[in-house]
Amino acid sequence: xxxxxxxxxxxxxxxxxxxxxxxxxxxxxxxxxxxxxxxxxxxxxxxxxxxxxxxxxxxxxxxxxxxxxxxxxxxxxxxxxxxxxxxxxxxxxxxxxxxxxxxxxxxxxxxxxxxxxxxxxxxxxxxxxxxxxxxxxxxxxxxxxxxxxxxxxxxxxxxxxxxxxxxxxxxxxxxxxxxxxxxxxxxxxxxxxxxxxxxxxxxxxxxxxxxxxxxxx
Length: 217
Ligand SMILES: [Cu+2]
Description:
Helices cover about 40% and strands about 20% of the residues. By secondary structure, the chain is of the alpha/beta class. It folds into three domains: about 45 residues; about 30 residues; about 130 residues, Immunoglobulin-like (Sandwich). The longest helix is centred in the N-terminal third of the chain and has 38 residues. The radius of gyration is 36 Å and the shape is rod-shaped. It starts with 9 loop residues before the first helix and ends with a strand. The structure holds copper (II) ion. The site of copper (II) ion has 6 residues, from loops. Copper (II) ion binds next to loops. Keywords: Copper, Electron transport, Membrane, Metal-binding, Transmembrane, Transmembrane helix, Transport.
């Protein structure tokens, strides 16, 4: 056993070096583990704010709210405009528009019980052809609306998507495409004041959105 000159034995010196090396390795391992944990936590915390990650999910609620607000506004404005212009005599002539976005411009049509006949004119303000984005205007009572809409879809475009000879159909126009116009004139003698009627487009799938209330007052 030789003296190192520092007061340590050779074996003690080796043991000290090994201990230091062990501590260094242990420390590095620990800091890597700790660093990794911190890194993971930072990623977890910040990933939801990453501009691209989950961007759609984060924007969705705001967009839905905005869309609903827009629809509500447009309907409200339309209803107000219609209410302002409404007159018993004028209500016998109704004009409604359909577009390429599966929309009617009215959610409600109100006619006077004094109308001998009512004429509904449908204008397609879009540009798409009738076989792709065709629209018509069909009137039934509320309970017949769904079954007639479905029967209409099955009747085919050759029947304007209206079930042939179906007594539940109170009035119906032909199917038209973008830029076209059609109308139907019918008696409202069989309609009851205060009852609820539904107007809709019977082109397959459109009735879910393209519908509204028809009222006799
Ligand atoms: Cu339609």
